[in-house]
Design goal:
Helix content is 12%, strand content 31%. By secondary structure, it is an alpha+beta fold. The chain has a five-stranded mixed sheet with strand order 2-1-5-3-4, with no helix packed on it. A hairpin with a 2-residue loop joins β3 and β4. The longest helix has 8 residues.
Length: 64
């Protein structure tokens, strides 16, 4: 399936956020949002992804 990952087209063969995190191996710490909704780490495996979903994997910004 095709999703948007951080604004870029990404061909994804998995089914949920846990599969995506395993595929891209982002540097820790990071946060995930699907269609602008935060997804907590405890539900990555239960959060299914669909064609054309917009997923953002971001690192927190420290400072002020």
């Amino acid at each position: 399936m095709n999703i948007k990952l951080n604004g870029e087209n990404f061909e994804f063969s998995g089914k949920n956020v846990a599969d995506l995190v395993a595929a891209v191996e982002p540097a820790k710490p990071f946060a995930v949002a699907v269609n602008t909704q935060f997804v907590s780490k405890g539900v990555y495996g239960q959060t299914l992804l669909n064609e054309n979903d917009a997923v953002d994997i971001v690192r927190p910004v420290v400072g002020g």
